[in-house]
Amino acid sequence: MLLLCAGAWAVVGGTPAEGDGPEVGIASDGALVCTGTVVHAEWVLTAAHCVGDGALAAWWGTDLGAGPGAAVDVDEVRIDPDWPGGDDHAHDVALLHLASPAPGPVAGLAAERPAVGDVLRVRGYGATRDGGGDGGLLREALLDVQDVDDERIRTFTAGRNLCSGDSGAPLSWPGTSPPLLVGVGAGVDPTCLGGAGVAVLLDAVWPFLVQTVPELAREDRPARGTVDTAADTAAEAASDTAADPVATPGRCGCGGGPWPAWAAVLAAGMALTRSRRRSGGSGRPVVRQD
Does the N-terminal peptide bond of residue 178 adopt cis geometry, omega within 30 degrees of 0? Predict the structure, then answer.
């Protein structure tokens, strides 16, 4: 059984990310809960289980613990109707509509799906260890693809993984600029350190994405392109240095920490059903799953 990590903390075994990217922190009622990716000037892609009852916003910056460099409210949420809810990560994605255009870069959407043995880059605001509350800093790491099926990507790299707060984080081809997205972080199995990472395969949710944002269908979906081998080698070496070789048994760090709002967000997100409707008001976005 996969353990959901919707808490608000950075990538296990990762290194601080540099430069402005399409990654954003997802905040609920002012508390950081997940990571997302700007895929269109007005839309952010994240995990469906990150959506709760609170007022949502996208935060930009590499160190959100010091406060976001920019913030934009979310006024509408679209959840993939094929997501069954709960701890099933198939189709576990949502698109968040921004009340005003994104002030930062937009990610590309890759045409090529990963295969076993490929290496992907993840960038997220999550925890660096099980039970850790050290999130808010954007970190990145290179992850090895262990398995790919029709709906999910599974990664495993000793000392590196997704963790609490990396739900919704982009998995992309290394060395691509802008990043070419192939998956969306969804959870870990069974723990952050020593466990595997699970992501939603972009191809599996492509119909939902283009139905919600038709402009995405009119844009080219490039292959992985030219990979910056030197940069990837340096990043991998840095990740190896930062990795903690000792696996910590237990939870994925979804408890404790400075942002306790994760629990309410996760519980509310798991209660969503395909027929749910919620009207806006009090800063809360309209949520649709149809």
Answer: yes
Burial per residue of 95-119, b for 16 or more beta-carbon CB atoms within 10 angstroms, e otherwise: bbbbeeebbbbbbbbbeebbeeebb
| CA atoms within a 13 Å half-sphere pointing along the CA-CB vector of 84 | 5
Mean confidence (pLDDT) of the chain:
79
Chain-centroid distance, C-alpha 102 = 17
**Tens digits of per-residue pLDDT, 109-143?**
998 899 999 999 999 998 776 766 666 899 999 99
Q: Are 130 and 252 in contact (CB under 8 A)?
A: yes
CA distance 55 to 68: 16
| Beta bridge mates, 34 | 26
Q: How far is CA 165 from the centre of its chain?
A: 8
CB-based contacts of 256, cutoff 8 Å, min separation 6: 131, 133
| Residue type present at position 17 | A
| Tens-place pLDDT, residues 237-255 | 544 544 433 332 222 333 2
